[in-house]
Design brief:
12 strands; 21% strand; alpha/beta
Length: 248
Amino acid sequence: MRVPIKLQTNKTTGSVKKIVMLSDLHVGYHIDRKELSSWVDKINDENADLILIGGDIIDGRMRPLIEENMAEEFRRFNAPVYACIGNHEYYTGKKAAEKFYREANINLLIDQTVTVKGINIIGRDDRTNEKRCSLKDLTGHLDMRKFTILLDHQPYHLEQAEEAGIDFQLSGHTHYGQMWPINWIEDVIYEKAHGALTKGNTQYYISSGIGIWGAKFRLGTQSEYVVAQLPITIKQNTAKNKRDRNAN
């Protein structure tokens, strides 16, 4: 399912106007190359400026990815791809996952930041690593006047992004239970188990994931990818243009 959202900001967004976001692909024995290929086709049809993945690209075994040469399929994406790590990458083996992502042309950010096309992207290590960096450490050297996106696989302690001045956070992990009525339980566990949320000046989207885990079916939940539209104009530019007109 295609989920469109609009991101609001007064900050500079560079040249980025459209971002496709997804999480929890879980490619492997349940999600094969044929299904992955159909996802790549849909995402490429969006002609996005960036593609962001919120963790759990790999289900848990490297063998099916290697046998089907799935890295080749990922290389078909027609926009730069940035991703954070998820808990399933730890199940697979962190080093093996990192090697696969390099082969797949996926820029994996593990407690790392990068500025791409005028926006900041932070990829946080999964909370599986209890010694992962704090958001304060990760944002300390960034120019926060730029629109800043956080990729953090598990949606715990959402207030931290707001406190750190993050503009948008993408998380996944929950699958929104994948099968009813587990989603009811997740609504109790998480502040937000699925969908959009705003806290102060920070927007969030918790994805139910495009893939599945365990059984190959869903009940009462949806497989999805998110298409985020950024403002074409921003207040700073509008004010500058007004000053320029007055000067003339």
